Amino acid sequence: MKSRSANLQKFSIVFILCLISFSSVIKASVKLEAPIKKVTVYTDRAMITRSIQLDLPAGDHTIAIENLPYGANDASFRGSIKGSGAILLGLNRRVVNLFEIPQADMAQLDREIYQLEKYDKQRIMDRKEVFERQKKLIIAISVKAAGDMTRQVDQGGMDVAQWRDAFDFVGTAMMGVNDSISASERGLIEIGRKLSKLKNDRRSMGGQMALQNKVVELDVRLFKAGRISVELNYIMTGAGWKPLYDARLNEESEKVDFTCYGEITQQTGENWDGVDLVLSTSQPAQGTGPGQLRNWVLSLLEPVIGVDQFLEMEGDAISKLNDNLYVRGGRTGEAKYDVDGVLYSSKEELIRMVNSAYSTSFAVTRKMTIPSGNEAVRAPLGNYELDRQLDNICRPQNRQSVYR
After folding, report:
1. For residue range 66-79, what is the model confidence (pLDDT) as tens digits?
2. For the residues of 21-87, what is the DSSP string, one character each?
3. What beta strand segments (E) does 238-376 contain?
4. pTM above 0.70?
5. Which of 81, 95, 114, 260 could join 381 in a cystine, given CB atoms 3.0 to 4.6 angstroms apart?
6. Residue 191 and residue 115: Cα distance in Å, rounded?
């Protein structure tokens, strides 16, 4: 009996240890939506950064980030975990088919479009038609009144006070009806903008991309309980930016106010609300392969000349130079130094510039909101004061009279 009791006790201990070890390998799943915190816009695409902080116990966890756009590039998903005693074990992605949510959203858009077209827009158009008829009536009354005034003047029995009241009435009525017509036109323009946005949203939801989205699952291991920061990056096409410049001559300070902007457009299907915005001049490739190797042909180095010598050369001599000729020193270095000096002499810190060997990035210092659609948003990149140099240019024109 003692032997059997001891065996049962050992079996119970082993069974409990097995349960403990089995429970320790069970993964806890966490489903969430990480908001967009940062966007890096390139010339033809954008990198989206979503991040969120979580308090998790020790153990293995699967963090599922849901409702990601279907158009996100699969090869671009990158995840990272920051926290004491936390490591990232792996990343998986999958496509989720949607049914009720997009249909409900499309039905809501259809109702809003119908309301604007059949009721709001038509009501304003009816009111505008009434105001235009009132304007025609007032014009007809004023024309008839002018004829009656002419006849009374000819007959010598004109009542000045009566005609003054009549003219005041016509003027007041005409101004009121004109204001009403202008207000109606502004209302129609505003409704047209709303309809355009709603119809664009409706078209974007009508395709396959609106009926599917993606979920990224991050396998995480925490050696101790604590707070971790989860970050997910991915590339989206349908976004880009271009530089814009505005130069104005300030006659009082005898300087040129030079303002730089970055005009951003994006049709990714996601709204960027209050994000940290970075504009980059680089053009990242989607692939991660080594690329094609090119032949490297060695040849003799051509002589190196200075810029001052180069500028003094005649046209025939310049045309004979080899394509591999190097020009260095002199005015080139001075010009580059001047440009750098201008770039960093901004009157207020609108951006933080990060230069690398191949690109330049402009980090906008304030939060930006850029909705998905056809409208472009301008981000200020810098405001500078430049020295001016005015030149008078006289050009002849093909005219009968020429003045100098």
Report:
1. 989 888 999 899 99
2. HHHHHPPEEEEE-PPEEEEEE-SSEEEEEEEEEEEE-SEEEEEEEEEEETTS-GGG-EEEEESTTEE
3. 239-250, 255-266, 272-280, 305-306, 327-328, 351-355, 360-364, 368-370
4. no
5. 260
6. 11
